[in-house]
Design brief:
Helices cover 23% and strands 32% of the residues. It is globular, with a radius of gyration of 28 Å. The strands form 7 sheets. Strands 5-4-8-2-1-10-13-12 form an 8-stranded mixed β-sheet, sandwiched between helices. An 8-stranded mixed β-sheet has the order 23-24-22-21-28-32-31-30, covered by helices on one side. A 5-stranded antiparallel β-sheet has the order 18-17-16-19-20, covered by helices on one side. The longest helix has 21 residues. It folds into 3 domains: 305 residues, Immunoglobulin-like (Sandwich), CATH 2.60.40.3140; 171 residues, no CATH class; 216 residues, Jelly Rolls (Sandwich). The two termini are 35 Å apart. α7 packs across α8 and α7 crosses α9. With 763 residues, it is α+β, with helices and mostly antiparallel strands.
């Protein structure tokens, strides 16, 4: 498989373009925790939903009356006829949806409504829109996660038939697919939808100022999709107590701004005849598609303020740097991070003292120890008040990266380890000079002096001296945080900090396979050891590691004397907790096999018929042993076919599923943003059955190499075994569009080899 790192919290990045707008909307409506804070009865809720639908279906927007597809798009699988998004931050007396008047404390109400009309021309698009699955609520139980409050969400769907008849779907008939304390998911089927129909649907979010806080979430209008868009319009209304800031990027239209009779700011923009883009394949939408970004600020305790009633266009970079200084100081003032840093420093000092007594802390390893100790406190340490969470979901916890690194910076400083924080920008977000908000920066910490170490905060398994690939190669400013009581933030005005690129050899998937036919000559027996390094290890670590194991390994590495299980067992008050954790550990381990089965299915595109062995050989928790290594033994059917007395073996399937370009992806007009420079190596030893010879070996070797990468296959017979060494390399994370033909050569060569076969002839 062309393994890419499983999303490292990309959902938090508003610039990662989802393949389908429908999914993007559902995620944006649901990944924030929300609840119905308005205590409405079922009849009130239904009445309000009907009023909302009536309002939106009645919009006077000519684009939604268009049913004609231009001849140029007649062969397209789908066409977006109209897309309109409407943002309102307005006073109570202008709020049209009367169902929310019970929210009585504030004068500003917010709505975010997006409506889209899509012509469906093929079965794949029909399947895409056949149901809406969405997460209604989720408790974000992560370290330093913000406690976000709620909103009301409304959905409307109707089907327009080729004869012009319109049928509204009863979206109230949702199916609750998961209902737990921390998570609720629903599914709405769209019956009666057929190829040739038009689906017209909307989502509407409504919330009040008390929920929104000092500003609403930022809005991103991306003028591009994997389908052509005939008409995309945006309409925003912001009351006179709101300040509006926006940025136009990559050739997007500017907002037309005017005042209405109530002194509200009215902003409108539109874009017509937008060609489709390969948003699902190696793009950075924030750098390659026209985008308008909008932020609405209201009154509140935050010190980052804009003048009420003003509209700020494309603010200068230095203003955002000034905002960063204010934001950091405010974080410390509001959250008392300085006091937290003092307490954590004392805690870590005690841990250091114990480690030095046991000679487990070499003199030059103090920065590393501090990092891993802080990671342990954030993700690994368990107290009697901790929620019992030892399953796979724990592995996906991510911190508030900024608070994590702000605290770590101060802790290091208090331990006389000088450092600075790099204001890093992702390749999937705006470049440094196009930032709009302080949230556009992520932090990367760098220690100074004789020992320069990069530190990031991606999650449970982040190593010291590791930088996520999305921040590589960017020119960034840095700041220093100092404080003992009063916190100071100083921008460093020296040369920009450039985060270095990693090489393909640093991000590797290495597979060693011993393969033979089972006695029935129908299945392959595969003994596999996988080694994943750098960016390539994220997904498998999260999917395969058990908290019980990595907690114990880190506890011992940090010289923590007793495990929490031992501490609980020694306490009369918490003894029952030890038993509860013991049962939770047993349950997690009983589900472990299924996690490995899913990993194999992800890699090879099908489930194994049997998994006989699975283990972790190295967890990759530290920079000293950074690779994830695991072993599996399994059987796979369907890759051996009998032909008389002979057998045909799909030998190419052993390198996993490869990227297959769709016909419309083979031509490209935009540059290529890949996850990272990376390499793959498969060493396969295939044991021939007794009495059989292999034919077709001479057709297996491949030597495809160019300036962007390579795909190579060496094949030879060694005694009674066939030995294949397959390598695939992408030299860089970014390639200009002029290099796309060379990239397609590599992709096509790998896809072709996936279909390679050998014949086992009797005799």
């Amino acid at each position: 498989m062309n393994r890419l790192p499983w999303s490292k919290n990309k959902t938090a990045n508003p610039f990662v373009m989802m393949k389908h707008l429908r999914l993007a909307l559902l995620l944006s409506c649901s990944l924030l925790q929300f609840s119905n804070t308005f205590s409405q009865s079922a009849s009130d809720s239904k009445s309000l939903a009907e009023e909302v639908r009536k309002e939106i279906w009645g919009w006077n927007i000519p684009a939604f009356n268009n049913r004609e597809i231009p001849a140029a798009y007649a062969s397209e699988p789908a066409v977006i006829l109209a897309r309109h998004q409407e943002i309102k931050a307005i006073s109570k007396n202008k709020f049209k949806f009367r169902g929310l008047t019970a929210a009585k404390y504030k004068e500003i109400y917010f709505t975010n409504t997006i409506r889209e009309m899509v012509k469906i021309n093929d079965k794949a698009t029909l399947e895409e829109f056949s149901e809406f699955s969405y997460q209604k609520s989720k408790k974000l139980a992560t370290f330093f996660s913000p406690k976000l409050k709620g909103r009301l969400v409304f959905l409307g769907v109707r089907i327009i038939k080729p004869d012009g008849s319109i049928k509204e779907v009863n979206v109230d008939d949702e199916v609750l697919t998961k209902n737990e304390k921390t998570e609720q998911r629903s599914k709405v089927a769209i019956p009666g939808l057929e190829v040739g129909d038009i689906i017209d649907y909307f989502f509407c979010q409504q919330e009040e100022e008390a929920i929104a806080g000092y500003r609403t979430e930022p809005y991103v209008f991306v003028f591009g999709d994997d389908k052509p868009i005939l008409h995309y319009s945006v309409h925003c209304e912001a009351g006179p107590t709101c300040a509006v800031e926006y940025r136009s990027m990559n050739g997007a239209p500017e907002f037309r701004v005017k005042k209405d009779a109530d002194n509200d700011n009215i902003l409108d923009a539109e874009y017509k005849n937008i060609a489709k883009a390969p948003v699902g394949l190696w793009m950075s939408s924030a750098r390659q598609l026209p985008i308008l970004r909008l932020n609405i600020r209201i009154g509140g305790p935050r010190k980052i303020r804009r003048e009420e009633g003003m509209v700020y266009r494309n603010q200068p970079y230095q203003q955002i740097i000034e905002d960063v200084k204010i934001d950091v100081k405010e974080d410390f003032a509001e959250s008392q991070l300085g006091l937290v840093a003092d307490a954590l420093t004392n805690d870590i000092k005690s841990m250091i003292k114990r480690a030095r007594k046991s000679d487990d802390l070499p003199k030059d390893s103090l920065p590393y120890y501090v990092y891993y100790a802080f990671r342990y406190i954030a993700f690994y340490r368990v107290t009697p008040n901790s929620e019992i969470n030892v399953g796979v979901e724990r592995n996906y916890q991510t911190p508030s990266k900024k608070k994590f690194l702000q605290l770590l910076s101060l802790i290091l400083f208090k331990l006389d380890i000088d450092n600075k924080i790099i204001l890093a920008t992702s390749r999937y977000g705006p470049d440094t000079k196009q930032v709009l908000l302080v949230d556009d920066f992520e932090y990367i910490l760098k220690t100074l002096g004789n020992q320069e170490i990069y530190m990031s905060a991606e999650g449970v398994f982040t190593n010291a001296d590791f930088i996520p690939a999305e921040y590589e190669g960017q020119d960034n400013q840095s700041i220093s945080i100092r404080g003992s009581g009063k916190v100071t933030v100083k921008p460093n005005d020296d040369l920009p900090e450039k985060i270095p690129f990693t090489k393909a050899s640093s991000n590797m998937q290495k597979e060693n396979l011993k393969v033979s036919l089972q006695s029935d000559m129908e299945k392959l027996q595969i003994d596999r050891q996988s080694t994943l390094s750098g960016e390539m290890r994220w997904g498998a670590q999260r999917a395969l590691l058990l908290f019980e194991d990595y907690y114990e390994e880190e506890r011992i590495a940090l010289s923590v004397k007793e495990s929490f299980m031992e501490t609980f067992a020694d306490s009369r008050r918490n003894r029952s907790l030890a038993e509860e954790y013991k049962a939770a550990f047993a349950k997690a381990r009983s589900e472990w096999k299924d996690q490995f089965i899913r990993e194999i299915e992800t890699e090879y595109g099908k489930k194994p018929t049997e998994l006989s062995l699975y283990r972790i050989d190295n967890m990759g928790l530290r920079h000293t042993k950074p690779n994830l290594v695991y072993t599996t033994q399994f059987s796979m059917d369907g890759w051996v076919k009998k032909g008389g007395a002979n057998y045909i073996v799909d030998i190419g399937r052993l390198i996993g599923t490869q990227l297959e370009l769709k016909p419309d992806q083979k031509e490209r007009k935009v540059d290529v943003y890949m996850s990272c420079a990376r390499s793959f190596q498969y060493t396969i030893r295939f044991e021939l059955p007794q009495g059989y010879k292999a034919e077709g070996l001479e057709k297996l070797p491949v030597q495809k190499s160019n300036e962007v990468g390579a795909f190579k296959v060496d094949a030879r017979q060694d005694g009674n075994s066939i030995v294949l060494v397959v390598t695939k390399t992408y030299n860089a994370a970014f390639e200009p569009v002029s290099h796309w033909p060379q990239l397609t050569e590599i992709i096509t060569a790998a896809q072709d080899f996936e279909n390679a076969k050998i014949l086992l002839r009797k005799g």
